[in-house]
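So, could you explain the following?
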Amino acid sequence: MKQKKALSLSRLMVVLVSGVAAVTALISIFVFTTLYTAALRSNAATGSEQSVTQAANAIANYTADTNKLLRRIIGELNSSDDSETLSATFATMVQMRDDLASIGVYRQDGSLIACYADNRRRKASVASLDLTGMEADSTGVYITPPHVQSLYMDYYPWVVSVARPAELTRYGGVNAFVTVDLQFSTIAGYMDDVGIGQRGYSFIIDNAGRLVYHPQQQLIYSGLKSEDTLPLAALPDGVHADGSLIRVIKSLPQGDWRIVGVSYLDELVAQPRQAALGRILAVVPVVLLILLAISVLVSRLVSRPIHGLVDEMRRFEQDAAQFVYQPVSGTDEINVLSGSFEHMVVRIQNLMAEVKSEEETLRKTELKALQAQINPHFLYNTLDSIQWMCEVGRTDEAVQMVSALARLFRISISRGADLIPIRRELEHAESYLIIQKFRYKDQFSYRFDVDESVLDCLCSKITLQPIIENAILHGFGELVEDGEIVISAKADGANVVLTVTDNGIGMDEAQCHAILSHDQSEPGGIGIKNVADRIRIYFGAPYGLSIESEPDRGTRVTIRLPQTGREEP
């Protein structure tokens, strides 16, 4: 069947990348504009609200401090009997605070009883307090609208009177109002500090919608500017968006004042949005041209399927034996390359399996050949020791050596089995130690530390004897004190750990590496590297042998095996 010719990858990628880039750019601009506008509106509302809240908190704290001042003044009036001292105290208080114009005491009808102020200023003959139509706040304090103070001759400051009812024993227990006149410029300063953009502003109204303060108050009073405040009195506190304006209303906790902040959306939203959109539109054509050029280059290099092949090759290099190839599809050339690589992978894996099988067979053959040999020096020395013991009448010791030698060879053969229980491997090691202890005339001692739960687990035959032989011949060769060998067998999770520890002369790191890299056994013996190779052949790569040693500190050889409890037939 004739294979259908695949579409040219170069042309396909150019068309797709160009189309996707254009559509993505348009969608991105639309989404960005929408989200950016919403974010600007939210930021504008949040910023305006924070500015108004900051001003409201400042004025509220200021009026709260004024309320504390009134309580203090009332306490002074009721506790002091000396008029001159009282006048001096209040006059000093007025002089020390720039925002305090005067302190006054008024009757219920608003007529003046007493005025305490800067002694350098002359009192006016007429002064009154008008609280008609006003309501006290929750603390019982009245705050009047701004007005011109008439307590002084030739001095008419613009003030706000804060009045508090009190029963004054000083004036015969009369019910009166104690007031402080505050310079309105102080409150106006808090409002002027509110920044809501370049064109935004804030002002104060009362609950009836009457204007208390406005930054352009003179223009409003002269009719050159207007501010519709009555509808604002009916609105609740919060943010109110109306066309191109954002109004934030915040009521003060004391008095009936409300702060209103006004900001313009075209300034806070439209202008930044247009500026950002202009920059984006200037960049988009350049980006599209760059993407088009890149798409042409990438399409010519066939990047995507080639990268897929490269990834598969890297995975193959990391684990060639377990690698499962996932074919990479693409143009005709890519399909040919993919098929060729798949054929190569199968061929290499077959060759690796053959090499591994041959290596395992070779290792097992080498082991069987080594096991079939008897170290003539070891056997000669052992038999010579037995003969000597018999001649000197140490027949019991000779019997022990003969028994140990017979058991050593019997376990070494093990009916041809490659894996034996750890119990028998420990018996083999003990037989070897008994013989060597007699030969070396008790120059070393040994002991076993065995967990009985692992005795029936399997291990490769003749695993411990080469390690013990290495400890005796090389570890105790130049040792002055008596040597000691400790053999342990413990469970470690799903594994078994065998260790052989001696207190010999030890080795440096290079010597440890050499032992694991080259067979260094005596002629006819089995080297430690051979032991490590056999463990990996029988049980796999995670298991094996490691050496820890320091010069003059001894050596520890650790063997890690799986817990497998089925003996080979």
